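Support request from a user on the community tier.

User writes: "When I paste my structure tokens into the form, the page sometimes reloads and wipes my input. The last time it worked, I copied everything first. Here is what I submitted, just in case something in the input itself triggers the reload:"
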């Protein structure tokens, strides 16, 4: 019954970049499977997306627990919904010096940003392979390109996402499946509030933050074109270009100075 329908599964789809990506898919008549923690928010977004004349399935799962990533796949598989597009958007950070931050929260972030992403990618990829078609978009970050004092675990997880994405892209180059990494910079989302990062110098100028709709458009277009990665925003392209030639120690110092609490400046 579903073989002619197009489905895109998006994690973190109720806010920020994930929400903007979901709108783009809905506009292009992809049926949506949206995953987030809050069922009320999911229900509200589903009503909005259905106005595009598509089907929307909501799955309320907390991907801080990797077992729930397996459960998301099981629910979709049970319904026999063919997922042609997978967007791993859900992610979080934590702000502070590593000696002071909460280890349990950091382990949750590693599970969300890495473990659940890897699980969903593997399971849905295995279903794409026999069909010979599929697109996967993984949310990396410009943080993936440099060590990140004051966000050491977050930067580390995003470095993993970028490396992982580029590796499996090479493995899949003759399969009809493409894997794309989206590298946003500082974007006007709830990320910084959730990361307890509002005191950081890097987020004090809200006018300099990217619009999540612009970032989503960059990622959407790159994924649809089958590109390996896209850095969103001109200044972020400049910064990542410089990161390729600067020593890591200099990058770490520069990033740390930019992410210190504003009162330390």
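"...and here is what came back when it finally went through:"
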């Amino acid at each position: 019954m579903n073989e002619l329908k197009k489905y895109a599964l998006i994690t973190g789809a109720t806010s920020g970049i994930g929400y903007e990506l979901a709108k783009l898919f809905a506009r292009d008549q992809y049926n949506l499977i949206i995953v987030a923690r809050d069922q009320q928010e999911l229900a509200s977004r589903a009503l909005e997306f259905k106005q595009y004349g598509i089907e929307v399935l909501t799955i309320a799962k907390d991907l801080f627990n990797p077992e729930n990533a397996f459960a998301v796949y099981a629910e979709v598989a049970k319904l026999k919904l063919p997922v042609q597009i997978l967007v791993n958007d859900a992610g979080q950070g934590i702000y502070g010096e590593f000696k002071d931050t909460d280890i349990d929260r950091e382990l949750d972030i590693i599970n969300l940003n890495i473990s659940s992403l890897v699980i969903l990618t593997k399971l849905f990829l295995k279903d794409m392979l026999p069909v010979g078609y599929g697109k996967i978009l993984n949310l990396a970050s410009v943080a993936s390109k440099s060590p990140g004092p004051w966000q050491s675990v977050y930067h580390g997880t995003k470095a993993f996402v970028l490396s992982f994405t580029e590796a499996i892209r090479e493995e899949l180059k003759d399969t009809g499946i493409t894997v794309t990494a989206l590298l946003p910079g500082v974007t006007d989302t709830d990320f910084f509030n959730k990361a307890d990062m509002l005191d950081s110098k890097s987020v004090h100028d809200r006018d300099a933050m990217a619009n999540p709709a612009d970032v989503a458009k960059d990622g959407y277009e790159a994924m649809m074109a089958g590109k390996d990665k896209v850095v969103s925003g001109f200044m972020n392209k400049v910064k990542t270009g410089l990161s390729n030639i600067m020593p890591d120690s200099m990058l770490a110092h520069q990033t740390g100075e930019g992410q210190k609490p504003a009162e330390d400046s």
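Agent notes: The reload is a front-end session timeout and is unrelated to the input. The chain has a mean pLDDT of 88. Residues 7-264 form a domain with the Rossmann fold fold (CATH 3.40.50.720). Escalated to web team.
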